[in-house]
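tool=predict chain=A
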Amino acid sequence: MKNIIILINLFLIALIVAPATAQADTLTDKSEKLVSILSPFIGDFEGDHEEMKLNAHFNARWNQTKTAMFFTWTSNLKESKKKVIQIYGVGVLDKDGKVVWHLHGSDGSKIDMKLVKHKKGKYEFEMSGSTPSGNLYEEVYWELMENGDFDHVITKKVVGGTLQKAFGFILKKKLNKKR
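tool=predict ok
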């Protein structure tokens, strides 16, 4: 009788756990999908924008399981090198398997960035969130270049209900030299 109760309990556990396990993505599935989309952006990149008088530095790396991409974006005034803003973010797959970033700025900004579509080295994002200057909405376009650099263009930017000037950077990939 004791063995029958144990078998019934094991059967019930299997009925409860098996469907959830069968439907859930494994870490490997999530890792493979995220790596296939974001791997070109892992590393150090630098660029500048003459008209805006800004330098930009983008640094991205994987977590241990490659299920999240951590990055920092730092903008400096070109002449004084004074930091304008630093953004910290993590890119993950949401519950629907879409790539999203959760961003926090050194100025208190909190922004979500969603990958809308990507194809053949071209990526389109929508960003929305709150900043000290009001709510933010941006449409951002990234294009990978053959040499590993990428073009980062803000095609539309609205802050606090006011349309801002669009601008962009060519971010050149820095090669890390081994010591």
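The longest strand covers residues 83-93. The chain is about 20% helix and 55% strand.
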